[in-house]
Specification:
homodimer, about 425 residues, TIM Barrel, ligase (chains A, B)
């Protein structure tokens, strides 16, 4: 093992065992250096979904840059005999030196969209499969669900508060994906640090129960953070809670939160009560098992903001995006699995999206990269260069760019494409 | 900010913003020091499930030990004005100094089971809510799904291979939870390092496509790792693939893997073909979108092992366990939310499980800790001490202990409790 020193967090063992077994065999028989193209795509969208949202690209690129085998990693692989010394030696010098092109974060995708194309030797590209898919499948699942919620909320802000319902690190990535998809803020402090996402939060029921009375709890909160805060009014009786809240905070009270019950009915009653108490500018925040359908159903109610937890961090019924990482080209020759199930299309591909002159999307065109079709005035190429010779290309989109991209993308969909009910993909994918 | 130096990975920002807002208010009004008991429980099991499996306890205890605010954490909270300087100063010295009791990993749980009881001041206990729930909700969801699969597999080994379908760090925890629940091995190399779980893996379709012929791919693999390996035979034509596999490896071939199609029918045909080729000891591994129902349906087929991915890492339809962390006691006085929805039971609680003399479980008895019922010969107390004055109690169960615990727990269930179809919890929960 070469004594290469790596610092920082390595992503190299976030990898399936078989990637290294394949690597060992390919190094031994001389095929490891063959020039290969792997493609990430989804065979289909989750049942009934009309579009997917690409999330996690920036995290993927970072993970590839951090994909180095530390001495500790190599010692582990040696001790457990995962690979032999020759393969360990090769891994000790690992650095991805190939090219990556793909869809930017916030871009819509459809069945067969070539979301990411990784070109390199078999050896250097195959070992990235697991971590690339882990990130894209998770983050895209969350972004896709969150986009439906943002769309259903029609401009009302959504607070992401699902950290407690998912793995502690997945929670940070989920907060990022939800923000990408239009959520306004998150409860997750680490997401605030890591990605600069605005964090928010005021109080839970435990804070009310800690105090001898609801009034004492409200007073403690107001004394500390001022009247422009959100008071949680449903610990005991909501009507009493609202009356106490306005008495303690005055009509300058920022907001109340209702976290249980039939929140639509309760919001209407609360609005009337707040108005009658002179708290006409006090906002109403609702939370508690909301998903995109519940949000849509509340459209006509006097709700000012939504808090969403479980449904967004679990992808609202589709917790993984089902993307795969398939070898499509070897030494310039298209390859594809040919058995009757799970067949795939060989060859390196790119994509463009055709639109009407009005801007409405018409179709996703997936084509052989070597034979691009003519680009019409209303067409948009979807692949951008992301990595060249192992280095990240400069000027890749930021998280805020991704938010903008998605907003424009949703506006471009045919109107049926934004329906929450189950249906076909919003636009067809054409392979040329 | 006190210049406390912390090393290692801090879990302190894996926390919802509101925990710190509440902390700030409670420090200001003097309630922060009140002696509190928080309880983790699930109001219900996921729809139709008959039992849950506790997973993640060891990870929770480690996360609590690592819950220290580093200078970088404090600088972030200062820069984003999450809390004021007084609160920051308090956080800089944070160390949990209370007591924790609970269910061991691998223990079954039911609606209302007091899975974890955290006792400390409000301040020190409230801030742990998010990370405790993240870990328990994730790991218990995976362990609960995996236990159904292990039970359906009736002793045949299951390989966990779902890393690519979930967040890259959730994948490591999922591999651990699946192993806890009886899976034999995992594909995830980091789970091998972190938890000592045996890892396995041989080859993907890309390895077949990399080579000019299937025969060349098989030969490369056999030459490298010997005939006692698993050859993936469904890249082109399965019958041809099996014929080639046995020709290349000889009848000593360890196993074949079939990853697509109607795996039951294909396994039967493959068994006949292998036998006719003299490869009577060559095992058959099947994979590809298997869940507990598919595993059960394959019981009569000549399958030797299962590879399970998506369904186990996503909790097979229930990706989160829905556990909550509720304040149940303040200064020795029971407290509970009293509004009409999401009501909860106040007071510090413990639990025991009653059994018939034959060992079959009868009921989960949840009782006030201060008033334990008489313990019969066939009853078992479910709470064990885990943390005292902030230090982990010695001799807590290992991951292998948890596997044994779960195995015994499943045997103790009434027979309907192991049915995969939807139904009520296997035993009732009685509150005394």
């Amino acid at each position: 093992m070469a004594p290469v020193e790596h610092t920082g967090t390595s992503t190299a063992l976030l990898t399936d065992h078989y990637e290294l077994t394949m690597l060992g065999s390919a190094l031994a028989d001389g095929t490891a250096d063959r020039d290969c193209v792997f493609e990430v795509f989804a065979r289909r969208l989750p049942s009934g979904r009309r579009y997917g949202v690409v999330g996690g690209i920036a995290r993927v690129l970072d993970a590839i840059m951090d994909f180095r085998f530390t001495d500790a990693d190599l010692a582990q692989l040696h001790a457990t005999a995962v690979v032999d010394d020759g393969t360990l030696n090769w891994l000790s010098g690992y650095r991805f030196s190939g090219d990556i092109d793909g869809y930017v974060e916030g871009e819509l995708y459809f069945p067969g969209s070539p979301i990411l194309t990784v070109r390199g030797t078999f050896a250097e590209a195959v070992v990235l499969e697991t971590v690339v898919l882990s990130i894209l499948n998770h983050d895209s699942a969350i972004a896709s669900a969150a986009a439906r919620m943002s769309s259903a909320a029609h401009g009302r802000p959504i607070i992401e508060m699902g950290s407690r319902r998912t793995h502690e690190q997945a929670a940070v990535a989920a907060a990022r994906a939800a923000y990408l998809a239009g959520f306004a803020t998150t409860s997750n402090l680490e997401a605030g640090r890591r990605y600069g996402i605005p964090t928010r939060g005021t109080a839970a029921h435990s804070f009310m129960l800690l105090h001898d009375t609801e009034e004492a709890a409200f007073r403690a909160q107001i004394d500390k953070v001022g009247a422009d805060t959100t008071l949680l009014v449903d610990t005991y009786d909501i009507t009493d809670g609202i009356e106490t809240a306005v008495r303690v905070a005055g009509p300058e009270l920022g907001a109340i939160r209702i976290d249980s019950g039939d929140v639509g009915v309760l919001a209407r009653k609360a609005r009337e009560q707040l108005d009658s108490l002179g708290a006409k500018d006090t906002r109403i925040v609702v939370s508690g098992d909301l998903d995109e359908h519940a949000i849509a159903a509340l459209r006509a109610e006097p709700v000012d903001a939504y808090g969403v937890g479980t449904s967004v961090v679990t992808g609202s019924g589709a917790p993984t995006a089902g993307m795969v990482y398939k070898l499509v080209e070897v030494e310039g020759r298209p390859v594809a699995k040919r058995s009757e199930h799970k067949a795939s299309r060989g060859g390196r591909k790119s994509a463009l999206r055709r639109h009407k002159p009005t801007g409405t999307a018409l179709e996703e065109v997936v084509y052989a990269s070597a034979a691009p079709p003519a680009l019409g005035d209303d067409d948009r190429e979807l692949h951008i260069p992301m990595v060249r010779d192992g280095d990240q290309v400069g000027g890749l989109p930021t998280l805020d760019d991704a938010r903008q991209r998605l907003r424009r993308g949703l506006v471009s969909l045919p109107w049926e494409g934004l329906k929450l009910s189950g249906g076909d993909p919003a636009i067809p994918t054409t392979f040329t």
